[in-house]
Amino acid sequence: MSVHTRSCVLTHFGQPLALEERPTPHLQDGQILVRVAAAGVCGSDVHIWRGDDPRIRLPLVMGHEGVGYIETLSGERRDVAGRPLAAGDLIVWERAVTCGRCWQCVVRKAPYLCPDRQTYGITRDGSFSTHLVLEASTHVLRADGDPALLTPAVCAGATVAHAIEACDIRPGDRVIVLGPGPLGLFAVAFARERGAGSISAIGIEGSQARLGLCRQFGADQVFIREQGDRPDPAEVVIDCAGTAESVADGIALTAPGGIYCAPGVGKPLGEVPIPFYEQIGRRNLRVQGIWVSDVSHLNQAISLVLSGRYPFHKMITHRGGLEQTTALIQAVQRQETIKAVVMPQE
């Protein structure tokens, strides 16, 4: 059966995406043709659309947070849990394809640092499309539930799971989360799961609704940056805002001997001047960068969403078909949404 794919294509930075129809490639051994059910619009998609991400080459089908149903498979495939896959199964896939042979993949067990890592929707065509061909080496997980609800787990949730792992939060630790968007909401929930003693969330003016949702996810205190009030320094500061200002704020808010962790830096920020002796060396701080994630982190994020312990359904505030993709990206840029999701079959 011949399947044609309708895709939103970025052809010029900052301009409306072009809706194109293309023939779907013939599957090679091990590949999976997915009927994309939902594709999240990430803050990184705004950077990509504007041309802020130096990795991007045009034209590109964006969308790196995909969830969908298997249309066809070429050969036998199983998910990472060893479960056989079949047409009709709902799956979530790791957003990157790595080589599986290099030092980082094999020795360091850090595939997110693979020098040949390719990402759907960033360095290869992605999920703002009715259909997507997944490479044979793509890690997939069989799933259940509302596909839209699972999309934030693919990037925001998985990246924060990586950050939480690196922070090694201990029961009773004080935690501060900078930025109350999807990354921040996952950070609050994961910190609560780890037994944090207190969790404070900080946002900017206009983010009151997001901060209110942080409380529902488990934050004990919320603060508006411009109003001047700040929480006491914390053992763990998770910077989900990813701005030069948040880097400086986050390091200043980290208690002596603590860790400042930055999963929110998704584009070049330039130089951030920090008095290293006074703020890092003398206070014995650990500064931890976080670059994306791997399938173990994706599994943790999906499990958290499906646990039912947190109101992830309230995170999804906007949905639209492929024709609304540009408008959804612009709404994310204006911070009118918490999470927007493209529904390619609508």
TrEMBL record:
Coiled coil (UniProt feature): none
Residue ranges constituting the Alcohol dehydrogenase-like C-terminal domain according to the UniProt record: 182-305
Keywords of the record: Oxidoreductase
GO MF, any single term: oxidoreductase activity
Domain Alcohol dehydrogenase-like N-terminal residue range list: 29-139
Top-level taxon of origin: Bacteria
Gene3D superfamilies in alphabetical order: Medium-chain alcohol dehydrogenases, catalytic domain, NAD(P)-binding Rossmann-like Domain
CDD domains according to UniProt: MDR_TM0436_like
Name of this protein: Enoyl reductase (ER) domain-containing protein
Native source species: candidate division KD3-62 bacterium DG_56
